[in-house]
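Risk register update: the risk of archive-format incompatibility is retired. Evidence:
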Amino acid sequence: MNLNKEIDSCMEKQDPYSAEALFATYKTAIYQFVYRYCQDEQMSLDLVQDTFVQFSKYRGRFDERKSSIKTYLFRMAYQLMINRLNKRNRMKKLLPFLYIQNQTDNVSTEDRLTIQAAIQQLPSEQRAVILLTYYHDLTQKDISEILGIPLGTVKSRLHVLLKKLREMLEVGE
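Archived output:
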């Protein structure tokens, strides 16, 4: 009996949402999403770290009945990224000489570069939808929660941007 109580006690102490376990599971996916969105490696690395720091700070607000942990973390990363980009844009307007675009990309195929360039030309709200849909295999419902927009808006943005991407990527056939 004593051994069973000890095992039960240990099981209760294990946290399925421990920062270490979540970091190991989601760090790469969050990094890829953020990097594909902003094309800034250092900012992406910082935002991954900031996401998990913020999760640790506000983990009590997570409600698994409302969303999955993946959706919650992606939403947190998205909000941090948008705030950081807005702040950077404000600073860029004040001090434009400090910001030089660093456009080094190690993508090996021309097609991938072309698609990536086309995605970067999309408005930011559409870009987030396509990245979360096709690069992170999230459902439209999850995307709706991450971006804080209605499900119908996700669907209409996806429809419009796919049409726009097709037009942008059409080669004179």
